[in-house]
What we know:
5-stranded antiparallel beta sheet, membrane, alpha+beta, iron, metal-binding, 4-stranded antiparallel beta sheet
Amino acid sequence: xxxxxxxxxxxxxxxxxxxxxxxxxxxxxxxxxxxxxxxxxxxxxxxxxxxxxxxxxxxxxxxxxxxxxxxxxxxxxxxxxxxxxxxxxxxxxxxxxxxxxxxxxxxxxxxxxxxxxxxxxxxxxxxxxxxxxxxxxxxxxxxxxxxxxxxxxxxxxxxxxxxxxxxxxxxxxxxxxxxxxxxxxxxxxxxxxxxxxxxxxxxxxxxxxxxxxxxxxxxxxxxxxxxxxxxxxxxxxxxxxxxxxxxxxxxxxxxxxxxxxxxxxxxxxxxxxxxxxxxxxxxxxxxxxxxxxxxxxxxxxxxxxxxxxxxxxxxxxxxxxxxxxxxxxxxxxxxxxxxxxxxxxxxxx
Length: 349
């Protein structure tokens, strides 16, 4: 090739500028196309009604969820193609809750794509740490976005969105009912009553005062209740768990509380076997100090002083059972516990 015709030269020997295109250059943004809602007021109002309808559908789906939970029996089985036999309540709960959440999401997306600002912005990269100017710009952008969203002037959209979002959490509140039956006042009392014999858990025989020797620990239960494997009725087991007691013989002069002394018989005291922390059975007895230790979290109770807590996480004393001796010489309850047994929640609830 002749040198006169090399790139960058002319036949007369002059220099020309060589233009090289960058294959990775920024192509820029295509021309902006306005949405129908940006230029047509009727389309804007139509989109607003559509979004509001989605939020209203979410509210109706939430109400349907609650109605299904209350009205459809949980053990009802129906054949649903192609799923086969399914629990009707579970199926309808899933469908209604899914629709409630879907309609809120669909309404929010439709709102953003049709009514919120449609400007294309280019933001240069900046350091990760935000300075004061950036934070101020963020707050300003948020305020502009809040204004452009129309929350202030689009009352229908705002109110239906608030209604849909406010109703959806009710689904979770209703599901709390599945945590179990309400305790009502069943945990505030036991089967102990005046004249009910105290039965030894070891011998299943009534207990006489002379059966309890000093320094020993005897576990007792109410007469007429059986929690053995031959009688697995869960209601009986629940009652037995609440009514289980332990008996200890102390010297009357060792008992520090007047009430504890009055509720005892010849130094024999009866306390609930259930720890007031989280309900573990207590049974580690130290006869020299009259301290009773819970093996779960080391709560320690003083049986010579109203079962008072002297160490550990338990927050209240062990409830004492008032006892007496009947005409046949057997120990029996003089009354039920004066306070709820077990964890302190039930006392405060």
